[in-house]
Amino acid sequence: MNAQALELSDNAANKVRQLRESEGNNDLMLRVYVTGGGCSGFSYGFNFAESVNEDDAEFMNGDVKMLVDSLSYQYLVGSVVDYTEGLDGSRFIIQNPNATTTCGCGSSFSI
């Protein structure tokens, strides 16, 4: 897999560093995935992982590793994972060029 197929923004990497420090665990990695559902057909998910699965693609920003499983990868190629703080709260977001429609909250999409 092309190591640059997905990008973890500096903002997102910095947030992961902050969360790792607050948890006291430098092994934490950001896992990004796609699941069925949501108002547009697919939903994005984020969690933290301590280990890499066999089918994971790995993407780096400095010392921060982002993992994407092989099923989710096909929907996320070319995407940028970012972190935003604003009036509507703080969250990880995905700028996905493959999404043809998205919902207002930005957490679901269709292809």
Description of the structure:
The structure is a single chain. The chain has 111 residues and is of the alpha+beta class. The chain has a single domain (7-95), classed as Hypothetical Protein Aq_1857, Chain: A (Sandwich), CATH 2.60.300.12. Helices cover 19% and strands 42% of the residues. It has 2 helices and 9 strands. A hairpin with a 2-residue loop joins strand 6 and strand 7.
Key terms for this structure?
6-stranded mixed beta sheet; metal-binding; alpha+beta; globular; 42% strand; 3-stranded mixed beta sheet; 2 helices; Hypothetical Protein Aq_1857, Chain: A; 111 residues
From the N-terminal CA to the C-terminal CA, the straight-line distance is 21 Å
CATH class: Mainly Beta
Strand content: 35-45%
Q: Give the total of beta strands.
A: 9
- CATH homologous superfamily assignment: HesB-like domain
The percent of residues in helical segments reads 10-25%
- SSE string, helices as H and strands as E: EHEEEEHEEEE
CATH topology: Hypothetical Protein Aq_1857, Chain: A
* Protein structure class: alpha+beta
Number of helices: 2
Radius of gyration: 14 Å
- Gross morphology: globular
Could you give the order of strands across the largest sheet? Answer: 4-5-2-3-9-8
For the largest beta-sheet, the strand count, sense and barrel status come to:
6 strands, mixed
Domains, number? 1
Mean pLDDT over the full residue set: 87
Q: Stretches where pLDDT falls below 50 for ≥5 residues? A: none
InterPro entries: ATAP, ATAP_core_dom, ErpA_proteobact, FeS_cluster_insertion_CS, HesB-like_dom_sf
Pfam families: Fe-S_biosyn
Protein name: Iron-sulfur cluster insertion protein ErpA
Subunit structure: Homodimer.
